[in-house]
């Protein structure tokens, strides 16, 4: 039997969910900074 | 050897062919790709520096047109900052952070792949501008309007390249924060993290806070150029000086984005070769965080000469001075770590000591320019060129090189050629000082930066600097050969590699298996940072 190759070891689902949640929050913070600085410069 | 390693050494299979690299989600492979990319960009940016130094060898115009010279200064900076130094830091983070905290990989491996593969596309866009009508961007890496708006067909390519670089950096930063926050092995508390990991968490937060500001600034440039807005156009009611404020609100934290990972490396290397624990671990963490925090309150020291209210100038002058305090804490702690240590001077240690001394030279000239009335004299002269090159080359680049020498035996399983390493260090150290130290004299004598021609009185020191530049550039070929030789073979490295090395990464075999720590190790105080 050929063992299936996995390039990255599996992460427990609860940790994967925490990773995803944190990534979304940080991406939203970055997007807010981006838009915020443009809006601040509008007159 | 950890349980995780022994479990995996029997079936340490890895993908093969081009697919291994194109679709990689393995932190070690992605780290390698980042480092190879950074090395390539270092030589492309270095070749541009050679063009600059060849042109400046004599007064008058020798080899290139003024427009092309300005393109070289602009793209050299963009390539070195965004293509060489930042990716090298991310490459080291990719390789080492999971191994240092006992994690099987980065938290978001597919995003990790995307963060890397954005870079070659971004730099293809940027470098392709050199072949466009009107030439490459030539307004300086600071992209000040209205000058930068005179860029020809290259302009949108420049802006989109910067956007891509920003996206890549932000994705990388998110990954590092998620990895350190959520993927640490049991027992690996925050105050047990190696300093390199600490400096990278703080750098990642700096990236998330500052890169969107640069993206916002260049978006506004784009709309000013193509969509009729007037964010920075005085004729339309905008303010070109506002661009400088927004740019440097990104730009000063960017300096620390470049330097903090190098500080982290030095904090790993010096205790190892002094065979002593790092002096003042906690104060190092707080000093790093203080430097990062303060970096958001000093931006206007880059633009004292635009004409600010006196209170503004005083605020930014004192705020700038205050950064010397946490930086001094770090220099003191590194020195105190070496004090009465059983020191040996292998190549990583030589580069680390070089950083402590030569970064301080750049730090002191920075303090000089932080004094507002003094800056009025030095602004836009070769003194500033000397200052930031001392910070970036024998400060940051030497730190990154120290990291490569330090971890290369772990990555490859072979010891590098120590004689060649020392030759590389001494040639680089002597030539980098021959290259950059005379620029202080040129700046104080009044030679302006970003010009292809100069008054004959500046000739001698320019010739000295150019000779230093050529020797420094050629010396780096030794490094390339040394790394190639080490990857191909050499004396077998043991797991610990260095006698004084401590930390989880040194418990793994050299080279580490493709997968490590699939079963998390239990970290104790004794195994934590050195």
The Rg value of chain B, from CA coordinates, equals 23 Å
> From the structure provided, what is the oligomeric state, counting identical versus distinct chains?
heterodimer
Structural class of chain B: mainly alpha
The count of strands of chain A amounts to: 0
Backbone shape of chain A: rod-shaped
Structural class of chain A: mainly alpha
Order of helices and strands of chain B: HHHHHHHHHHHHHHHH
Helix proportion of residues of chain B, in percent? 55-70%
| Overall mean confidence score, pLDDT of chain A | 85
Indicate the radius of gyration of chain A in whole angstroms: 19 Å
Strand content of chain A: under 5%
Number of distinct helices of chain B: 16
In short:
Chain A has one helix and no strands. Chain A is mainly alpha-helical.
Give a structural overview.
The complex is a heterodimer of chains A (43) and B (530). Chain A is an all-alpha fold and 43 residues long. Chain A is built from 1 helix and no strands. Chain A has one helix at residues 13-40. Chain A is rod-shaped and about 50 Å long. In chain A, 14% of the residues are buried. Chain B is globular. Chain A binds chain B through residues 3, 5, 7-9, 11, 15, 18-20, 22-23, 26-27, 29-31, 33-38, 41-43, and chain B through 11, 13-15, 23-26, 104-105, 107-109, 111, 170, 173-175, 177-178, 181-183, 208-209, 211-213, 215-217, 219-220, 231, 237, 242, 246, 515, 518.
